[in-house]
Design brief:
- The two termini are 18 Å apart.
- With 561 residues, this protein is of the alpha/beta class.
- It has 14 helices and 27 strands.
- It has four domains: 2-70 and 194-243, 2-Layer Sandwich (Nucleotidyltransferase, domain 5), CATH 3.30.420.40; 77-191, Rossmann fold; 244-456, Nucleotidyltransferase, domain 5, CATH 3.30.420.40; 462-548, no CATH class.
- A hairpin with a 2-residue loop joins strand 2 (11-18) and strand 3.
- It is globular.
C-alpha cells in the first residue's frame, strides 16, 4: 500500500493507493501555523482499518519551505559572497544582509587571488555583534574549486562555532553564480525549521509504530528519501504544484495530449503544462522572489484565486478575493464565495444551494443589482482571470526548449488539446472554463484528491553532474561537491567520464536507498571540449549529466473508475 499526502494552502489531502485502486482518502483544513498537525490528522484518518506493516511507502508534499520564504520567516541570515573579478558588488542584490570578501577562482578552478584572513575575521566579529548565526557562503566558480568556501566555513567553526554555515558548492554544483548563491541563502534560512518539522514528523510516526520509508516530493515531480531531504529544503519549494502536475498525469495515464493542468483549491490555483504526456520543466530553475535558483522544477505558476475566494463589496464595486475567510456558504461558511456563485447560477446542487443564494443575495443587495447579475459578473471575472493567467504562462512556456522542440518536430505551432482539472473547486469551475475557451476539459472522480495521488505514485529522482578537466587533472561531482583527480596516465574520453558519472550515480542511489531505480538512469548531457593553446591540444574538458527521470513507480498502472 502507498500513502500520499499533500499539504495545500487550504486543505490537506491524503490517499491510500493499492493495486490501481484508492482504498481510502481524507481531506482536512490546513492549519498554516502547524502543518505537521494537519498532516498527521489526515494520516490518522487514512490509517483506519489498515495494517501498518502493509504500508510500503509514504510520500509527503508540503508547503512549509514555500511559506517560510514567502512570509520572510526564519532566522536572520547573512549571505557572504566571494565574487572575484568582474561585476560590481551592487549587481548581487539577493539578501538584505550581504557581505563581500576578497578572493578569486577562475572558470578552470585555479586560484587567482587568495582570501584575506584578517578580512574574514573582521566580518565574523561583525556578524557576532549583529547576532546573526545563520550564514550562507558562495564563491564564484566554487563548483570548480570550493577551497575558499571551505576555508571560510573552517574559520567560522573556530571563531564562531554557534553559527550554522552552508556553502554553495554543497547545495548546487552548476554554473551560474547568482543562482547558486541564492539557493545557498534560502537553504541557510530554512534548514533549521525544515529539520524541526521532519523531526516532529518522524517522532509522530515512531509513536504510531509506523516503519514504512518516508519520501518527500520535490519540485521536479520526483521524490527523495527523508534523510536525503534534510540538507535540501529548497528542493521542496514547489512541491505543491509538482503534486498537482503529477496528479494530472496520474489521472490521464497513457495519454499524450497537450494539456494545461489547473489545480483549483480553496485559496490558489496552480497552473502547469503537459506536452506530449510529459510535464514541462523550467530550464532556468525555480524562480523565487523574481530570482532564479538551481532548484529543478516544473514550469509552474500559482495565482491567488480559488473556490473559497470571498466576495466583498468595496465602495460601490465587487471585490473577489484574494483571501479566504472560510468554506463556501453552501458548506456552512459565513460568506459568499466563488463556489457559491457557480453553484447557484448553474444549479450544481452542491451542499446547500439555499445557503449559497442567501449569502449571495446579501452581496447583491449591497451592490443594488439583481442576484443573477452578480453571479454572472463573478463568473465572468473568474473566467477572465484564469484565461489571462494561462495566456501569461504560455508567454513564459514559449521560451522553454521543450516547447520549441515540440513545434520543430511537429512542424506547426503548439496546439493545446485540453484542460485537466484537479483540486477541490475543479468540478465546479473547469467545465464552464472549458466551454468558454471552446476546448476539451477532463475531470476524474479522483480530481479533488489527485494531488495526493500524484504524490503517492511518483518515483524517486536523482541527478548527477560530472565536470572533468584533464589538463587540471580534476573532476567534480554534484551533488555533494566531491572532487578528485582524473590521473594523467591515460587519455580520457567522453565514454570514460560517462562511466565515472554512472558509477557515482549508482553509489549515491545505493546510499539513498534507491538502488533499484539506478538501472533506469539516462544521460541527458554529453559534452566534450578541447583545450587549445597555439597549435597544440593541452587537454579536454567534459560535461556529463545522468539522471533517474521523474515518472511513476513501476507498479502504477492507473486508477480504476
Amino acid at each position: 500500500m502507498l500513502i500520499g499526502i499533500d499539504v495545500g494552502g487550504t486543505f490537506t489531502d491524503g490517499v491510500v493507493y493499492h493495486r490501481n485502486q484508492i482504498l481510502n482518502w481524507a481531506k482536512e483544513a490546513t492549519d498554516s501555523d502547524n502543518l505537521a498537525h494537519s498532516l498527521l490528522a489526515v494520516l490518522d484518518k487514512l490509517l483506519m482499518d489498515i495494517q501498518f506493516d502493509e504500508i510500503e511507502r509514504i510520500v509527503l508534499s508540503t508547503t512549509l519551505v514555500t511559506n517560510l520564504i514567502t512570509t520572510d520567516s526564519g532566522p536572520r541570515t547573512a549571505l557572504i559572497l566571494i565574487p572575484g573579478y568582474g561585476l560590481p558588488f551592487d549587481s548581487y542584490d539577493m539578501a538584505p544582509d550581504s557581505f563581500f570578501l576578497k578572493g578569486c577562482i577562475d572558470f578552470r578552478g585555479n586560484e587567482l587571488e587568495a582570501p584575506d584572513y584578517n578580512e574574514i575575521n573582521d566580518m565574523i566579529r561583525h556578524l557576532q555583534e549583529m547576532d546573526i548565526t545563520r550564514v550562507a557562503v558562495a564563491g564564484k566558480f566554487a563548483n570548480r574549486n570550493n577551497s575558499h568556501e571551505r576555508l571560510v566555513q573552517h574559520i567560522f567553526a573556530e571563531k564562531f562555532p554557534q553559527a550554522q554555515v552552508i556553502i554553495s558548492s554543497q547545495t548546487a554544483q552548476q554554473l551560474n553564480f547568482p543562482r547558486r548563491a541564492y539557493t545557498a541563502y534560502l537553504t541557510a534560512r530554512t534548514i533549521e525549521m525544515w529539520n524541526d518539522f521532519l523531526d516532529s514528523l518522524l517522532k509522530a510516526l515512531a509513536d504510531r509504530e509506523i516503519k514504512a520509508p518516508v519520501h518527500i516530493l520535490k519540485a521536479d515531480g520526483g521524490t527523495m528519501p527523508l534523510d536525503a531531504a534534510r540538507n535540501s529544503p529548497c528542493e521542496t519549494i514547489f512541491s505543491g504544484p509538482a503534486a498537482s502536475t503529477m496528479g494530472g498525469l496520474a489521472i490521464t495515464t497513457g495519454e499524450s495530449k497537450n494539456s494545461v493542468v489547473l489545480d483549483i483549491g480553496g485559496t490558489t490555483t496552480d497552473i502547469s503544462l503537459i506536452i506530449g504526456g510529459q510535464p514541462l520543466h523550467a530550464s532556468k530553475g525555480a524562480k523565487i522572489n523574481e530570482q532564479y535558483t538551481h532548484v529543478k522544477s516544473f514550469a509552474v505558476r500559482s495565482i491567488p484565486l480559488g473556490g473559497d475566494s470571498v466576495l466583498r463589496v468595496k465602495g460601490d464595486s465587487l471585490q473577489i478575493g484574494p483571501d479566504r475567510v472560510g468554506p463556501a456558504a453552501c458548506f456552512g461558511g459565513g460568506s459568499a464565495t466563488v463556489t457559491d456563485a457557480f453553484n447557484y447560477i448553474y444549479d450544481l446542487d452542491i451542499g446547500s444551494v439555499s445557503d449559497s443564494r442567501d449569502k449571495l443575495q446579501m452581496v447583491a443587495v449591497s451592490l443594488n443589482i439583481p442576484l443573477t447579475d452578480l453571479c454572472h459578473q463573478v463568473i465572468q471575472v473568474i473566467l477572465e482571470r484564469l484565461k489571462n493567467a494561462i495566456s501569461a504562462m504560455f508567454k513564459e512556456w514559449e521560451q522553454e526548449p521543450a516547447y520549441k522542440v515540440w513545434e520543430v518536430v511537429n512542424r506547426k505551432p503548439f496546439q493545446l488539446d485540453r484542460i485537466i482539472g484537479i483540486g477541490a473547486a475543479s468540478q465546479v469551475i473547469i467545465p464552464i472554463l472549458g466551454a468558454d475557451m471552446k476546448i476539451e476539459h477532463f475531470l476524474h472522480h479522483c480530481s479533488p484528491i489527485a494531488n495526493a495521488l500524484g504524490s503517492a505514485v511518483s518515483r524517486p529522482t536523482l541527478t548527477v553532474h560530472v565536470h572533468g578537466d584533464t589538463q587540471a587533472d580534476l573532476y567534480t561531482v554534484e551533488p555533494g561537491g566531491k572532487q578528485g583527480q582524473l590521473g594523467k596516465k591515460r587519455s580520457w574520453q567522453l565514454e570514460d567520464i560517462k562511466e565515472l558519472a554512472s558509477r557515482h550515480l549508482e553509489e549515491l542511489a545505493l546510499s539513498s536507498g534507491l538502488a533499484s531505480y539506478a538501472r533506469e538512469a539516462q544521460f541527458f548531457r554529453e559534452e566534450q571540449f578541447n583545450v587549445i593553446r597555439g597549435w597544440d591540444r593541452l587537454g579536454k574538458m567534459f560535461e556529463v549529466g545522468i539522471q533517474i527521470t521523474p515518472g511513476f513507480i513501476e507498479e502504477f498502472k492507473g486508477v480504476t473508475e
